[in-house]
TrEMBL record:
Phylogenetic placement of the source organism: Eukaryota, Metazoa, Ecdysozoa, Arthropoda, Hexapoda
Homology family: Belongs to the glycosyl hydrolase 1 family.
Record-level Gene Ontology MF annotations: beta-glucosidase activity
Name used for this protein in its record: Glycoside hydrolase
GO biological process: carbohydrate metabolic process
Signal peptide coordinates: 1-17
Record keyword Magnesium present: no
Amino acid sequence: MNILIIFSFLFIPRISAVSRSPILIEKESFDSSFYAFPKNFSFGASTAAYQIEGAWNEDGKGQSIWDTFTHNHPDMIADGTNGDIGDDSYHHYLDDIKALKEVGFEHYRFSVSWARIFPNGTIVNKKGFDYYHKLLDQLIVNNIEPVVTMLHYDIPQWVQDYGGFLNPYFVKYFKLYAQTLYTEFGSKVKIWITFNEPYESCVEGYSAGTSPPLINLRGTGEYICAHNVLLAHAAAYDTYKKLFKNDQRGMVGITLDSRFYFPKNPLEGSDIVNRAMNFELGWFAHPIFSKNGDYPQVMIDEINERSNQEGRPFSRLPEMSNQVKEFIRGSADFLGFNYYSSRYVEFDNSEYDPTSQPTIYQDSRIKTSIDENWKRAKSEWLYSVPQGLHDALVWIKNEYNNIPVIITENGWSDSGELEDDDRINYYKEHLISVAKAINIEKCNVLGYTAWSIIDNFEWRKGFSERFVQDAFLQLNQYNGLDHKNDIAIIEMPSSFNTTEKSYLKFARLPTTELNDALVGSTVG
Ligand code: BGC
């Protein structure tokens, strides 16, 4: 049965800012089953400890590499700011939860600061537990499912002093940390994420050296880093499975980020897409989610060949023994997927100069580009390409046997403008892509998480790039009772803004309210 579905934008009058009447800008009629979300699909928002908590040295917290970096190098942060106070969520977490609740979000992804729990070494700081207990208790009271990331870039400084991700001992430290989290919070947390975006941590932190810990080991550092991340992730998974899963009945996954790649030259077709995807997403996903485990074959072959040409005795990509392969393979109950943007890709035919400085990008032998028509956000890397999210989900489904996926981040930056139609369009179009991937392609997507609920410290961009402010979108669907029937992203009125923070409102409105809102709209 064809049911009328209406996508609409509702501009809610705001106190102390512009106010407009509701405008219905799209009205289409199509098969609702293509655009509805499954009943048990969950909508949520995501944050990370260093970006929102503040309280950088309170209650026994130790320093993380981001504390060290921002204090030593304010010159390397776009606006010279840091996360010392940030959004002060450490003291104002109730406001955050109120916003989540008002919005109608069903899950909240946040990360734990490892340095609050283990400030200086392997001795636990019991005071560090309190904040997370309070946060978790409030989320549970409000019926919001906690999704907890163990490490979102902010490695404790003491772990870094031992070499961070490059030290094989990292695995032991991380396992202890994970086990401590399960023991302390496992009765309250059912969805765990070990790492956030290890691609970024390894490439920016240990290869290019552009983000903390600023280690410049191009062509080797990123691969050793990734190897230890995979081992640490698998150790955390194994610990849960053996010691906690029976009682706690939760899930453990990992969050990976990737662009999708479209072939620039149609003749290169799926080969070039697979090559590019394997050098980004597959680097971490293939060892965990593929049938046979190990790094993608294209990485093994290329890096081995280049290492040979460079006269090295062994490949720059660490080898996995059968035992290691087996340990890592299958070590996740779901994939957390962060998607923001896509690129065109073509094969790089240029001859390799083995005396040049290698990097993972060079090893991949791809050249990437953008389409001039893609709209760009404030962030220079962020172009809106909703089709890429759809195609990435389909790629994941085909490559990894339709594993469960939670979209753990998706969002759009600006400077904090009052009018953010670009963000509205971005969310709308990306949600449509997700719905299509689920309903038409049968991708196993369990949830969608907006980045973010609150404007926050955007790493090296400080507070100069904002992912939340003034978002107000309604994306509504009229459809059958067995589907969620309304999804909306609307602006949080500034009156709510008690702590001078901006919150994203991404709400489900009852259909009756929606109808009321549409009365007086310019169309229909
Ligand atoms: C990170 C977030 C970051 C967001 C926007 C993601 O890569 O996980 O911490 O704020 O992108 O740049």
